[in-house]
């Protein structure tokens, strides 16, 4: 066992050295700069990702009138927040939010392609593109949700929203009980991409 | 409707053998060198030094070759080891650097 860890540590150091060498070489040749890696990854790390959706949902939790506006005119409401540019751009402009409530649970799918509101939710999980998930979620959403570990009682209506090239849906989950004292920033941490797809609910930490 | 290269590049890998590790809607890197490997490959393809699909062919081939060499014990698997190997091959194939230069840079 110890040998394996040793091997792993050596290989880590070797891989790190190879990357440093390659990066230095490409910089020296003028192919990239020392900012290139950060610039390209900034896209995933700070511009487009589930942290945007978390901010939108947390605001809706603390401000009911924002939540109303978010459901009525999603792009306009999102524009009120100072999120990175592009949120309401080519891909985000047709976004529509649906709110969970006592008695209603929403689930987003895309049976035709794999449209995904990625500026707010980040990269889709691998199963989202799976034809089996797409067709089954439309046909038997309760069974699919149960497989995700989310049992929705028969008293609660399950609404399935099928995204298209025109409209990308996302879910505003219900604010978890016991979070009355939390700040907006603390609430953001409770919002997961899964909850904004409707395959999970938000829970207090 | 994939208007951003970054989005296209990563979405295209989904459900394929070279799909990168991710967690909760974000890419996940185990270390700085993994992040740098990914960023360099994406930036080089974005700037036209090689086609993303050609790079992916190298990556899929590296993954396959690793799997063939490790039929049973896969405990030493690391996606980004294969990614780095594919990147080194791709930059040489694209004529950006030659393999001697890479060896020299590593020895420096």
Outline the structure in words.
The complex is a heterodimer of chains A (205) and B (108). Chain A contains ten helices and four strands. The model of chain A has no long low-confidence stretch (mean pLDDT 88). Chain A is mainly alpha-helical. In chain A, helix 4 crosses helix 5. The two termini of chain A are 35 Å apart. Chain A folds into two domains: 33 residues; 151 residues, Nitrile hydratase alpha /Thiocyanate hydrolase gamma (Nitrile Hydratase, Chain A), CATH 3.90.330.10. With 108 residues, chain B is mainly α. Chain B has one domain: Cyclin A, domain 1. Chain B has five helices and two strands; from the N terminus they run H-E-E-H-H-H-H. Chain B has a two-stranded antiparallel sheet with strand order 1-2. In chain B, helix 2 runs parallel beside helix 4. The longest helix of chain B is centred in the middle third of the chain and has 18 residues. Chain B is globular, with a radius of gyration of 14 Å. The model of chain B has no long low-confidence stretch (mean pLDDT 90). The chains are: A mainly alpha (205), B mainly alpha (108). The interface between A and B is large, with 50 and 45 residues.
The CATH architecture name of chain B reads Orthogonal Bundle
Give the number of domains of chain A.
2
Q: H/E order of the elements of chain A?
A: HHHHHEEHHHEEHH
Count the DSSP helices of chain A: 10
- Specify the helix fraction band of chain A: 40-55%
Q: Whole-Å distance between the termini of chain B? A: 45 Å
Query: What's the assembly state of these chains?
Result: heterodimer
Most extensive interface between two protein chains, with residue counts: A-B, 50 and 45 residues
Question: Could you name the CATH class of chain B?
Answer: Mainly Alpha
* Largest sheet data of chain A: 2 strands, parallel
Give the SSE string of chain B.
HEEHHHH
CATH class of the largest domain in chain A: Alpha Beta
Number of domains of chain B: 1
Question: Approximately what portion of the residues of chain A adopt beta-strand conformation?
Answer: 5-15%
Trace the largest sheet of chain A across and list its strands: 1-4
Number of strands of chain A: 4
Distance between the termini of chain A: 35 Å
| Structural class estimated from helices and strands of chain B | mainly alpha
For the sheet with most strands of chain B, the description reads: 2 strands, antiparallel
| CATH homologous superfamily (4th level) name of the largest domain in chain A | Nitrile hydratase alpha /Thiocyanate hydrolase gamma
